[in-house]
Amino acid sequence: MPWWRTRRSEADLPSASPATGMATVSVDAAGRRRVEDIPYLLPKDQEELNRLDYQHYVLRQVCRGNVLAPVAKLLCEGVPVLDVGTGTGRWAMEVAEAFPRCQVTAFDREPPRSSQPLPPSVHFVQGDLLQGLPFPNQSFGYVHQRLLVAGIPLQQSRIHI
Ligand SMILES: C[S@@+](CC[C@H](N)C(=O)[O-])C[C@H]1O[C@@H](n2cnc3c(N)ncnc32)[C@H](O)[C@@H]1O
């Protein structure tokens, strides 16, 4: 275990699990909850979810929308969408609402823990991006991945996903 992470109590925490199952978590010296089995630098707790939500709203405001790529026509037609490292799932939910013909797959190491349940057009898939995406080629018409910089080590930034 890295030196900056200390388990509070083994009993409080889920045990080790396969990459596609429940994540292994710990609590660090500052009391922040962290996912152990991926090299992700940021915490995964309510405080971080609040920060991600806030950041999402700022970005949406600054960028004047959720989608900058010229894919509005495809989205209106209902192409399947993938959101890699969905975090709170906020982007996925808003895109699903804006483009009701789209099915949005929200992928992350841990499920979103939002007070708002995912709508039927957003489907969560749990997994580790660094093990490869668990979808056949050509499954999606639009893939979105935002702010995963703290989760992809340089050595693994060239994997084929
Ligand atoms: C900084 S957050 C960004 C969330 C969202 N994309 C946004 O823009 O608000 C990064 C997310 O990627 C997820 N993540 C990090 N490493 C991952 C990995 N190896 N596999 C799957 N998800 C990962 C984290 O759990 C976290 O939810």
Can you put this structure into words, describing what you see?
- The chain is of the alpha/beta class.
- Helix content is about 20%, strand content about 15%.
- The protein is built from three helices and six strands.
- The strands form two sheets. It has a four-stranded parallel beta sheet, covered by helices on one side.
- β1 and β2 form a beta hairpin.
- S-adenosylmethionine (SAM) binds next to α1.
Question: Which SSEs are present, and which pair or pack?
Answer:
Layout (H helix, E strand, L loop, with lengths): L24 E3 L5 E3 L10 H18 L8 H6 L3 E4 L5 H9 L5 E5 L13 E5 L15 E4 L16
The site of S-adenosylmethionine (SAM) has 21 residues, from helix 1.
Largest sheet, if any?
4 strands, parallel
Radius of gyration over alpha carbons? 16 Å
What's the architecture of the domain at 46-156 in CATH terms?
Answer: 3-Layer(aba) Sandwich
Q: What is the CATH H-level superfamily of the domain at 46-156?
A: Vaccinia Virus protein VP39
Q: Any low-confidence stretches, pLDDT <50, length ≥5? A: 1-18
Q: What is the distance, rounded to the nearest whole angstrom, between the alpha carbons of the first and last residues?
A: 27 Å
Biggest sheet: strands side by side, in what order?
5-4-3-6
- By secondary-structure content and strand pairing, the structural class works out as alpha/beta
Number of strands: 6
Helix content: 10-25%
- Give the CATH level 1 class of the domain at 46-156: Alpha Beta
Number of helices, where a helix is a run of at least 4 consecutive DSSP H or I residues: 3
Mean pLDDT score = 87
Small molecules in complex: S-adenosylmethionine
